[in-house]
Amino acid sequence: MTRPTVIAIHGNGGGAFRFARLAPLFTADGAIAFEALTLPGFGGRRRDAACRTLADYAAHIEAVVTRFPPPRILLGHGIGGSLVLEYLQHFAPSVAGVILHAPVGAQLDTRWFPRLMRFTAARELGKFLLAAPALRPLWRRMFFSNPVPRAFLDQFFAEYGRCEAFGDMFDLITADWFAGLRPVALPSVLLWGARERVLRLEQAADFRAKLPQAAIEVVRDWDHFPMVEQPEDYAAKITVLALRLTATAGVVAFDEPVR
Fold first, then answer.
1. CA distances in angstroms from 81 to 31, 36, 125, 132, 234, listed in the order given
2. Which residues span the domain enclosing 241?
3. DSSP assigned state of 2
4. Count of domains for the chain
5. Got the DSSP string for 37-81?
6. Of the candidates 256, 227, 253, the residue with the CA atom closest to the CA atom of residue 241
7. Per the confidence metrics, is the pTM higher than 0.85?
8. Distance of CA 123 to CAs 10, 127, 162, 174, 250, Å?
């Protein structure tokens, strides 16, 4: 079987740097190739006037994805998962499968944080506070369950302050957008940490309605950022899932049922 390439799409406020601790773990002679994107407006990149809608972002991603030989697997974390869902509305035949890790999109009309972020002032204040050096000890405790090198976390939080598209995502990723997504039958995995505190596991059923072939994998000791906290475990899990998706017709065993 040809070695698959996993193309990772980050969540809101960051960029490809969020996957940087994985880079040494995927070598040229490994089972899979791994690439991480930084989208326009994120990770210090300037906004692109051509990226105004989610469909625009999907087209931007497609132009990058198709540079890699098939089979290709898209991995989306947080809003990266939302962008993967939009991508599948337009370009599903270009990928062999997808992994959505704690994606955003379900229950946006009932969760307090998305509702708060409807207000421009709240978005700007939230971005400022997340980037503030004085508050990083607080955010470290809230976001992470395991030790992470301080230099890494300093850049992780600083990227929120440089994220020009942070607020845009709350206008684009809405309950109406999610409701309008048509189901796509494609080999898929919904990946969740059992200790997830940002996007709860019960949302997985809503995403499975959009990806009817999706399996659900729950990793018992993961929180929201295992690619940062447990890079070795994360790389091993992504490798297994990518190989499984490219080797099967989409029937992936469940680790645990949705509760």
1. 23, 14, 25, 27, 16
2. 5-247
3. P
4. 1
5. E--TTSTTPPP-TT--SHHHHHHHHHHHHTTSPSSEEEEEETHHH
6. 253
7. yes
8. 19, 6, 13, 15, 38
Tokens of 83: 């962008």
Give 13's Cβ-side CA count (13 Å radius). Answer: 15
Are the C-beta atoms of 238 and 99 separated by less than 8 Å?
yes
Tell me how far apart the alpha carbons of residues 158 and 40 are, in angstroms, rounded to a whole number. 17
- The CATH number assigned to the domain holding 74 equals 3.40.50.1820
Q: What is the pLDDT of residues 24-39, one digit of tens each?
A: 999 877 899 999 999 9
Q: Residue 101, SS3?
A: strand
Query: Mean pLDDT, to the nearest integer, of 89-102?
Result: 97
Question: What type of residue sits at position 48?
Answer: D
With tokens 């698959």, the residue in question is 4
